[in-house]
Amino acid sequence: MRVAIVGGTGFIGGYLVDELLRAGHQPVVLVRPGSGAKVRQPDRCVLVPGDVSSAENLTTLLDGCDAVIYNVGILREFPRQGITFENTHYNGLVATLDAAQARGVSRLLLMSANGATRPGTPYQETKKRAEDHARESGMDVTIFRPSVVFGDPRGTNEIASQLYNDVIRLPLPAIAFYPGSFPSEKRIRMSPVHVEDLAAAFVNALPDRSTFEKIYELGGAETLTWREMLERVAAAVDRKKWILPMPVSLMWCAALLFDRLPFFPVTRDQLTMLAESNVAGANHLRKLIGRRPRSMEAAELQYLRRRVANA
Fold it and tell me: Model pTM?
């Protein structure tokens, strides 16, 4: 199949390209100016310069394609640069589907997010509105809602690398956030998904008609607390860390003052979603990839050791 990818140059997008090629498909990648070097195996892909703000670029991208993957998402807005949840998650998806339908492309795989809902944070709401628009489009749609995604970032960033950079690497105690008033009341929990498992789920679903009109909440092999994730990352790089509990509400107060500044690591909305946890079962992912998903354990975090060695 000839498969258009919007969002094919980032962390997950690179793995989608690799998996499509492995399965014998032809990726057609929309490449923003300055992102050409980020394309995986560019000699085996069709590259279309442009971005989702251009109807002409999208028409060129989708010409002759059998399917489209919309894999665009941001965690933080930069409105002065035109980078907003509304433009990235929703308007871009609407423009892509308009171009796809004009070119007779009926198959859509949509990367959404676990916890997409209305009402919610702007991130959650725009993800959910994109889902609703896709489902109402009349196309053959499959929607994926993964929990947090980990794996070798290959020059980009992901959850384990971020935890190492922002927490484990620093000569300070690590912070284990918790919602509520007391650490024992409730714990933040996540179900980390390995990026190669996620890419395999997308590509395996591509020709499978039984996945049409389905929404898949995807969790990895196990669910971990925030503290356990910190411990896994620290163990992977042979670091011993003193871990202190801290209520999310305290960090939220700091974000109230500083989250509009680029240097501050998290926003209030991100902390709100963190407190809600990000848990999904492994059954859907196991069924889609035909095996047990990978765990966030030392053997799967060796890329962190390479990061430390090259620092």
Answer: 0.94
